[in-house]
């Protein structure tokens, strides 16, 4: 919205990739990590599988050609996010 008036041809999108199978964790400082994370680890009853770098990149390239306000690169993430919001009190009880 901030850019629309002056630069109407610019599109801004929020990209939410989730877990992507990279070497990022292997190169991170272990002292700053809350716990070891496996590429297939996730909380809850159904673990989310890591997405390949190629698949995530393909979805981002598609976004460049077909702008949208936001995307999850992993097609399973909208359901994970919906479930989290439905059960948010189970994770962070209201005081």
Topology (SSEs and partners):
Layout: E1 14-16, H1 24-27, H2 53-65, E2 70-72, H3 77-86, H4 88-91
Parallel strand pairs: 1-2
Pick out its properties.
95 residues; mainly alpha; 4 helices
Write up what this structure looks like.
The chain is mainly alpha-helical and 95 residues long. The chain has helices at 24-27, 53-65, 77-86, 88-91; strands at residues 14-16, 70-72. Residues 34-46 have low confidence and may be disordered. The termini are far apart. The chain contains 4 helices and 2 strands. Strands 1-2 form a two-stranded parallel ribbon. The longest helix has 13 residues, at 53-65.
- Return Rg in Å: 17 Å
What's the overall geometry? extended
Biggest sheet strand order reads: 1-2
SSE class: mainly alpha
Number of helices: 4
Task: Give the tally of structural domains.
Answer: 1
Distance between the termini: 35 Å
Arithmetic mean of pLDDT: 79
Largest sheet: 2 strands, parallel
Low-pLDDT residue intervals, each spanning 5 or more residues? 34-46
